[in-house]
Amino acid sequence: MKLHAELLLGKEVVDVNGKHVGHIEELIATKRGGDTVITEFHAGRAAMAERMSAHGVAMIFLGVFGARRRGSAKPYRIKWRDLDLSDPLHPRTTKPLEELEQ
After folding, report:
1. Which parts of 1-102 fold into alpha helices (H)?
2. What is the model's pLDDT at position 52?
3. 76 Cβ partners below 8 Å, 6+ apart?
4. What is the C-alpha end-to-end distance of the chain, expressed in Å?
5. Separation CA 41–CA 1 (nearest Å)
6. Contact, 80 vs 2, CB < 8 A?
7. pLDDT for 83-92, tens place per residue?
8. pTM for the whole thing?
9. pLDDT: is 28 or 59 the higher one?
10. How far is C-alpha 85 from the chain's CA centre?
11. Would you call 30 exposed, middle or buried from its count of C-beta atoms within 10 A (0-12, 13-18, 19+)?
């Protein structure tokens, strides 16, 4: 499947049960032969901080805008095979939120 990565950044992701996971903030890619392949997506508040590359400062910044620190401060790491992109405007995981890797 070929998609334009810029269309996925910022999209809200829900899990298989419709529970909010977060927005896609990072795409992890690798070179395979002559192709660049997305292997993983990072979503959630911590992924936004990761994208801003200053985790501590970013978490303070997000707090100013009402973000609350809940649970782990690690992004949800969603493997390519675990993200249903049959509707790229509304991505869904194929696993429940509780089973997603952080």
Report:
1. 45-52, 55-64
2. 59
3. 13, 21, 22, 42, 43, 44, 47, 97, 100, 101, 102
4. 25
5. 15
6. no
7. 999 998 999 9
8. 0.73
9. 28
10. 13
11. exposed
Q: Which pair of tokens denotes residue 87?
A: 């509707």
| 41: nearest Cα among 20, 61, 58, 26 | 26
What fold characterizes domain 5-94? SH3 type barrels. (2.30.30)
d(CA 36, CA 31): 5
Two tokens, residue 82? 């675990």
Residue with structure tokens 């993200």? 83
| Locus of tokens 């690690």 | 74
Residue 45 banded pLDDT, cuts 50, 70, 90: confident
Query: Using one digit for the tens of pLDDT, what is the confidence trace for 72-84?
Result: 478 899 999 999 9
